[in-house]
Amino acid sequence: MSRRSGHPPKKDPAAPKGFWAILRSLSRTVWLVGFISLLNDAASDMVYPLVPLYLATVLMAGPSALGLIEGVADATSSLLKLVSGIINDRTRRSKGMILLGYTLAGMARPLMVLATGWGGIMALRFMDRLGKGLRSSPRDALLAASVSDANRGIAYGLHRAMDNTGAVIGPLAAAGLLALSVPIETIFLLTIIPAMAAIALAGFITEPKGYAPPPRAAVDWSLSSMPKRFRRFLVVLGVFTLGKSSTMFLLLRASELGVTQAQIPLLWAGVSAVAVVFGTPLSALSDRIGRTPVLIGGWILFVVIYLALAVNGDGPVLIALFLGYGLFLAANEGVERAFVADMAPPERRGTAFGWYNLISSFALLPASFLFGVIYEDLGHAAAFSLSAGLGLVSLLLFWLWVLRTRD
User: Fold this and answer.
1) Which residues, in sequence order, are CB contacts of 286 under 8 Å at separation 6+?
2) Is residue 14 part of a domain?
3) What are the residues whose beta carbons fall under 8 Å from the beta carbon of 216, sequence distance 6 or more?
4) What's the predicted TM-score (pTM) here?
5) Does a structural domain hold residue 16?
6) Which residue has the higher pLDDT, 167 or 201?
């Protein structure tokens, strides 16, 4: 996509045509990184839907503690996402940080069984997100360097789809184990199996040809030299993320509306399944029609879902809203990353992804904490309404301020 026109790049006449042909032509690196993410997310999402239940039923912590834990974990890791992105641009070596990142995350989850209070859970969630901070920006830059400009959307969409496949497998495994009366603590321990497989596969990552360090090795982390549209997009993304908060609050709301402990992982698996089915096609569609229509459609869907949850959203409506949230993820996760790669100078993509990941994660600290406080003090309606309002403001800013920018 041209950074100025917003239109998709011209296709190479000799390039494979058709969705499946393009998918099969993607590089070994794209598929390998996708399988690693699948295994890592299978481990992560065996635990993720159970953390609110574990805090509430075992450690006796409320929504405000949950908000603080999720906010601190994501915000602190976000600083590393910028640092790792800058280091990636300077060294053009992604593998080491990716491998270390998956190793830290794989170790953190089984150690949750040792936590005796919510502070211990926060420390281990921090360790988990620390690993995410190390690997995210180098991985995103590596993917951009491993595909042509014309296939960037489908590559990111495939990665996110495989990531979400793991997010289907993990909750289903957790639900099955809970149905067999396996304790939550044992489920935490079992996450070591897919985590070790992900770490082993990460050892086979290779850097793309021509992905050598630039002649000038000076560190350049500033935003001032980045395109104006990219800088404005980061501002709007920050506003949107302030309303997004942690998805654990969606699971908490579902629990309040009568979804049982065993059904919670199944509900989250449904969200991920929708993201798997639609993620790659919607990202591939953005290669053809541009990123803007897909991104705006996803953000509109987010506003509608949160408004509905503010009103009520029980019974079959709740299931529809959660599946709709999966469609929102499908329309945004891969397309947002492709949009960032489109706007960023090639030699500074690691730094651009660092800033993107920094803003989208750091804003989760006030977002999750304030959402939790409002949820606890004023009720779910006020919390979800505020999120929907911030989503609407972000849509207007994106349309009137970002898309009209001329670099």
Assistant:
1) 8, 153, 293, 294, 295, 334, 335, 338
2) no
3) none
4) 0.80
5) no
6) 201
Reading the block at residue 284, the tokens are: 């591939």
**Which residues make Cβ contacts (< 8 Å) with residue 321, sequence separation at least 6?**
305, 308, 309, 313
C-alpha 104/C-alpha 128 separation (Å) is 6
**Enclosing domain of residue 116:** 22-209+224-402
**Rounded CA separation 62/5 (Å):** 48
Q: Using one digit for the tens of pLDDT, what is the confidence trace for 297-308?
A: 999 999 999 999
Tell me the pLDDT tens digit for each residue of 144-175.
889 988 889 999 999 999 998 988 888 888 88
The CB density around residue 396, as the number of other CB atoms within 10 Å, is 11
Residue 380 CA neighbour count, 13 Å, CB half: 18
- Distance in angstroms (rounded) separating the CA atoms of residues 54 and 255: 13
Quote the tokens at residue 340: 């960032």
3-state DSSP assignment of residue 46: helix
Residue 239: both structure tokens together = 């506003």
Nearest to 124 by CA among 181, 59, 170, 178: 59
